[in-house]
From TrEMBL:
Keywords: Glycoprotein, Hydrolase, Signal, Zinc. This is Purple acid phosphatase. Residues 83-273 form the Calcineurin-like phosphoesterase domain. CDD domains: MPP_PAPs. It comes from Parasponia andersonii.
């Protein structure tokens, strides 16, 4: 597990002490640190320290820098069931706080965030206040994120983009053979998760495309029967907001994901909720992915309330309300997805569906030859 924290004290050590009893730290790990300057802002010292190896499904107590507050985290389980909390486009508003409060009430193992974290929009101090806002949750469970458009913060001739995001939110890209923090993969229990970048090159000549092919080749569906992908800009979107923005990435990458029998694709960007049937190439397909848009985490831009009518055949449920999703992988064949509005009590499920894995439906076996052909071609 990588622990990331920021100190104003530039001499603070990048050390994490940890153990399974409060106040008793049997282990210590030394990490690395970085910092960055952005216009007239200088960040604090950003520490990244990997602790472990850790036991699965275990509570650890830890403190950073040799003193100060004790935190506790719970590691994910090694086997099913495993539950993901899912919310994108968070920002830092009263709505965001409501989303986080709702998530805090659900029993989950890992938080998935498909882009648009702080909505700092160049104001670097807002990256700090976002960290303070999410700390109660992000210190207790793994937060796995990918970038959105609000992470770009490009200034021509000064900043090439993603400077704050890459410095603060370091994901396991090197560990998964990626050359960029903007796309990577990881595994939890029996799920292989791929985090793609909507805002870095994705055509068939790009590093990301080559990396994706190589990563898909490594997936063993006997070990990880579920395959889940996250990216920021939705490919299936019947909201009037951001119409067609994902088309180019979809044209490049959907054939790969379809050949690999991806079970579920999760996106943000559109500030509303939508769930598709299993779909591929614009049409319902029993061997396609279920696409979910969950960009309704609470950002200050408000909700995207206008939809295209009639509702497309592939679209199963859509609503413009703030909320979060919960994805419970019950076993190797069945998952339960539910969407929870902030306006309701946390246990209320406004949308819910059981999802059968493509391994269990025979799609993976059916497409095995097609997959190897597309992945092995130059």
């Amino acid at each position: 597990m990588r622990i990331t924290w920021i100190t104003d004290d530039k001499s603070a050590a990048s050390v994490v002490e940890y153990g399974t009893s409060s106040g008793r730290y049997e282990s210590v790990a030394q990490g690395e640190s970085t910092s960055y300057d952005y216009m007239f802002y200088s960040s604090g010292k950003i520490h990244h320290t990997v602790i472990g190896p850790l036991e699965h499904d275990t509570v650890y107590f830890y403190r950073c820098g040799g003193d100060g507050q004790e935190f506790q985290l719970k590691t994910p389980p090694a086997q099913f069931p495993v539950t993901f909390a899912v919310a994108g486009d968070l920002g830092q508003t009263g709505w965001t706080k409501s989303t986080l409060d709702h998530i805090d009430q659900c029993k989950y193992d890992v938080h998935l965030l498909p882009g648009d974290l702080s909505y700092a929009n160049y104001v670097q101090r807002k990256w700090d206040t976002f960290g303070e806002l999410v700390q109660p949750l992000a210190s207790a469970r793994p937060w796995m994120v990918t970038e959105g458009n609000h992470e770009k913060e490009i200034i021509p001739f000064i900043s090439s983009g993603f400077e704050s995001y890459n410095a603060r939110w370091k994901m396991p890209y090197e560990e998964s053979g990626s050359s960029s923090n903007l796309y990577y993969s990881f595994e939890v229990a029996g799920i292989h998760l791929i985090m793609l970048g909507s805002y870095t090159d994705y055509d068939e000549y790009s590093d990301q495309y080559r990396w994706l092919k190589a990563d898909l080749l490594k997936v063993d569906r006997k070990k990880t029967p579920w395959l889940v992908v996250l990216f920021h800009v939705p490919w299936y979107n019947s909201n009037k907001a951001h119409q067609g923005e994902g088309d180019h990435m979809m044209a490049a990458m959907e054939p790969l994901l379809y050949a690999a029998s991806v079970d579920i694709a999760i996106a943000g960007h559109v500030h509303a909720y939508e769930r598709s049937k299993r779909v591929n190439n614009g049409r319902p397909d029993p061997c396609g992915a279920v696409h979910i848009t969950i960009g309704d985490g609470g950002n200050g831009e408000g909700l995207a309330r206008k939809y295209l009518n009639p509702q497309p055949e592939w679209s199963e449920f859509r609503e413009a309300s703030f909320g979060h999703g919960e994805l419970k992988m019950v076993n190797s064949t069945h998952a339960f997805w539910s969407w929870h509005r902030n306006d309701d009590d946390e246990p209320v499920r406004s949308d819910q569906v059981w999802i059968n894995s493509l391994v269990s439906s025979g799609c993976v076996a059916e497409k095995g030859h097609e997959l190897r052909k597309i992945l092995l071609e130059p």
